[in-house]
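Interim report, section 4.2 (structural modelling).
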Amino acid sequence: MAETTLTVNGQQRTVPVDSADESVMLLWVLREDLGLTGTKFGCGLAECGACTVHLDGEPIRACITPISQVVNGEITTIEGLANEDGSLHKVQEAWVELGVPQCGYCQSGQIMEAAAFLDSNPQPSDDEIREAMAGHLCRCGTYTRIFNAIKLAATKA
Amino acid sequence: MAIDSRITKTSAAERALFADLTRRTFFKGAAAAAGLAIVFKNPSVAQEASPAANGAPSASWLADRYAPPASFAFLPPTDQVDAYLSIDENGVVTFKTSLIEFGQGIKTGFMQLIADELYTSLDKIDSVMGQTDLVPFNIGTFGSLSTQLAGPTLRAAAANMREWLLDLGAEALEVDRSAVSAQAGSIIVTDDPSKSITFGELAGGQLSARTIDLEVPLKDPATYEFVGQPIHRVDSVAKVTGMMQYGIDARIEGMVYAKVVRPPALGAELVSIDFSEAETVPGFVASYVDGNFAAVVAERVEQVAAALAAVKAEWTEVNTGNTSENIHDLLRSTADAGQPLGAEPVEEGATPVPAVLNEIVTPLSVTISNPYVNHAPIEPHTALANVTPEKVEIWTSTQSPFESQAGVATALGREASEVVVYPLAAGGAFGAKIMAHAEMVAAVLSNHVGRPVKYWLTREEQFQFTQFRPAMVVDVTTGLDADGKIASWKYDAYTAAYYPETTDMPSGSASDWGAVVTEIYDVPGVETMLYGGHSPLPPYFWRVNGAATNAFARETAITQLAELAGKDPVTFRLEMLENNPVMTGVLNDLVAQSGYEPTVGPSGKGVGLALAYDANSSVGQVAKISLGEDGIIYVDRFDCVIDCGLAVNPQGITDQVEGSINLSLSPTLGEEIKFENGKVLNNTFGQYNPIRQPQAAKEVVVGVRQNLGARMGGVGEPAVAPVIAAIAAAFYDLTGVWLLDVPFTPDRVLAALEAAGVSLPIGG
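Predicted structure of the assembly:
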């Protein structure tokens, strides 16, 4: 039986699929094989951002990413975003402080995008924030608090 | 145990609430749409409200095969304290409700109400929400009803449990009943607090066996410790760490995955189907056909997708000629005789008294339209079913666990009591997760393959095979008398109601919400009619339903009348609000909060006002917009003031109102279901184009009025209602041009400006 080993949240994880099978998307391997259900399905077309994870620190859409593209990289999901001492990442912290989530379903993707964005642009302008987050949908309408939380996170060490 | 054997009788207070709410047709519409029978004082109304009882199909996609049972009646809540509350050895109080938390914050609000009434603390409150074998029956979570209806019930149950604890405490402490009081999770001797016993020691694990007595006094609102305090909802950490479990996250050992073979369009019939190639796909488990319902099951996600792709199915052509382009003409041409709204009921045989009309000196006609929109929750409808001979287990995200239970029981031909529904968190709902659908699919297929089956709709299925906020078109025919006051008000609303087209039974669409102008304003000579027309797509509840469309029509006409009368939009409204002190307060607060300086006619600043009344709450909004040269409307600031009576958790209300505004901006600015011949043409997020961060309100300011002694009004939806109207008024204030057809897309904006001879940039 085919097997593939991935590096997810700093751990080697083996899943029962052929790494060359282009129909096997990272999203479903994370969710259904590894039980990392914090990464969400929304559309399967990279149009909503709910499935955003990091590949070597860069945000990618797991729903359209075959595992063949990630076998040599380090994958970080929302479950692995917190600091090494277990404390929340500054973006997660800002989200909690402002009470951003309503239903919360889109927030894993929003947070992963925001964390990668602040890594690359620690002091963004308002328009840069809006543009960086434009790939993400939130149906509950928490956009205004998301924007404010990113501003708040940018002030944190 | 059947559902109804648990139900005893409705309390007087709840009866009064139900009577009040049913007058507003909340439940009538809800039950009709869900295919439920409903207990009304007037049996003829009940019959009218229940398509299932009359054998007509409901709007459910699966309904032709698995119609919800007519016997699933709306049952009044139990009055047994123990059905709602239990207490353990550690003094932890668990409240039980079939209502669901999907981010609207009701869990936090209920905790506040119970902690106060029981004189305990928030960390001593736990909850069971929705699990059908543990919670009392309730019809579902929608219509901004949770706090309005369940709030008073839980509060009364908590007050009665407190009285029981006081009785037990007096006995245990060997003092007179009048000598004890409740304090911080204990019963104490009032004059000697060193003598005390904790709730857990007194009552842990016992049943109170009490019936809710409405004579039991409630806590004096002036002494509330938790109610009225702004508290962030309790589940944020789980939601930012990926730990919160949603319906789609459910996994159990041995589960397999299903996909439904969908027709190309609504109404298509299955002609032939060939699974032979699908059967050769690795991991293939089973195929299934029953009428027009066909599906495949496989071991893994990618395998079931491959199996579905290998199915060869032939469907009949659908050629109705109905499209999103001609829908509003269709609504007029197929309109029924109409029903009057808001008029005093007339005794049978008596002649209705015609409205007294003053002579119109300055006439005004306004016609507005709104298209179909989809709920589009980011988490699609989903379920995991495990069907065994002993019982049926369903893990899902649903607004109505008992509707899920009834649907599954019917689909399987089993007793409802054999079906346990475990609702997990819902990733958005907005009306999309009331009807059983994914639950029935998963259950039928689990029963077929003898293994647990997980199913979720693809995004494309969610757009095509669910329900839609009905398209509407509204004519307001009004005008001013010689004194510059409104002379009369004729309101004709045409809504998509009859689906499928071949039946004449209305589906619930609640397009009447907010249609009657006198719910807010003093206006003479009012006639309000709601006409139902054929609906090519299944119409259904969508957050706030018709109230947003009706607020748009009403508020636009009133702002236009104000200008004709030579008055600004605030002054003109205040003159019609003399008998509505609550809305007067809202409007005055709103003007102060927003700094709105109303003018007669457009100011060029892009500021617009609108009011709405929904779910017993009054809302006022002021939008400040700007316009890009590409015709895109940007929302620079949005002010809202809400009066919902007793504001249990002002922070939760603020969050909910902020979300309501951004959600409502989306269909205002861009959402429209495009369809032809039963096929949705824009069935992806990219094509449907909900608003994203750049078009969301840049700043939202929410004022929550507090009245600790008042009843609790609804909060989930009212702030959705005025948004279209506020944006349209702001656009007029900016440009001098009225936008009358929703959504206000860049194309429509540019066309409207061009037709009016206005060039961009404004003021440039």
